[in-house]
Structure of Transcriptional regulator:
Amino acid sequence: SYYRLLQPKKKIVYPAKIRLLLQAYWLIIVCIYLVYSFITSDWGKSWIVWPLSALTYGVIEVVLKAWRLGKK
C-alpha cells in the first residue's frame, strides 16, 4: 500500500481554454476579496471568501475530471 501511495499521480491534461480559466479563477477570487474588503472595510468577515472559493474550486475540478474521463 505504501508503494501505491508513493507512485506519481497521472495528470489529467485539460484543453488550453479550461487551463486558462482554472488559472484565472484564483486571480478573480483575490480581486473579489480585495474589492469587497476595501469597499466594506469588513476584513473580519471577508476571510470567508477563501474557504468558500477553495470548496468551489474543488467541485469544479471534480466536475472537470469526470467530464474529461467521460470523454475518453
